[in-house]
Amino acid sequence: MNEPSDLNALGALGFALPTPVYLAGAVLFGLIGFAAYRYGKKASRPTVKWLGLALCAAIYWFRES
Predict the structure, then answer these.
(1) How far apart are CA 41 and CA 55, in angstroms?
(2) Cβ(33)–Cβ(54) under 8 Å?
(3) Considering Cα of 26, then 27, then 33, then 37, what sign does the dihedral take?
(4) 51: in domain
(5) pLDDT of amino acid 44
């Protein structure tokens, strides 16, 4: 398998690998969002719970185009 040509073929189809900064941000936002969701659910605080879900989903809104 020739990996560079495979990556070029995927790039021609519109697929691209995310940058390391994007991946680190996704993990960070996901972990903070998950922790906020768990805390909000356990403490019966719906505002914190929904904020946690929003943080988990935020990385999809900031995705590179």
Answers:
(1) 15
(2) yes
(3) positive
(4) yes
(5) 93
In a domain, 12, yes or no: no
Residue 13 lies in a domain: no
- pLDDT surpasses 90 at 7: no
**Domains identified in the chain, total number:** 1
| 3-class secondary-structure state, position 27 | helix
Q: How confident is the model at residue 3 (pLDDT cuts 50, 70, 90)?
A: low
- Apex 25 CA angle, 36 and 14, nearest 5: 125
Indicate the pTM of the whole model. Answer: 0.69
Mean per-residue pLDDT for 47-59?
Answer: 90
Which residue range(s) make up the domain with 63? 19-65
Q: Tell me the pLDDT band of 39, cut-offs 50, 70 and 90.
A: very high
